[in-house]
């Protein structure tokens, strides 16, 4: 199991387009991936669950990955959140 926290640096957080990019990335891996904000936990491969977190700019999320490709998934998800999530105007 790999667990890590990330601070959302893109202005739109995990809403709409950024959430869909995040979910598409997570679906690339065989591992089970959960994302948590506060007391809410979501399946990172389910767009509706990710959107329901209401994760905004500056929020900290906790990511938990379990499975055969967990290390690769962790590296790529960290890279995505820290550098690549798209910005959209609110």
Quick tags:
single chain; 90 residues; alpha+beta; 37% helix
Assembly category: single chain
Percent in helix: 25-40%
- Rg, rounded, reads 12 Å
The averaged pLDDT comes out at 94
| Total count of strands | 4
Largest sheet: 4 strands, antiparallel
Beta fraction: 25-35%
**Low-pLDDT residue intervals, each spanning 5 or more residues:** none
Query: What's the number of helices?
Result: 3
Task: Give the overall shape, derived from the CA principal axes.
Answer: globular
Distance between the termini: 35 Å
Strand and helix order = EHEEHEH
Structural class: alpha+beta
Strands ordered across the widest β-sheet: 1-4-2-3
Describe the structure.
Helix content is 37%, strand content 26%. It is of the alpha+beta class. The chain has a four-stranded antiparallel β-sheet. It is globular, with a radius of gyration of 12 Å.
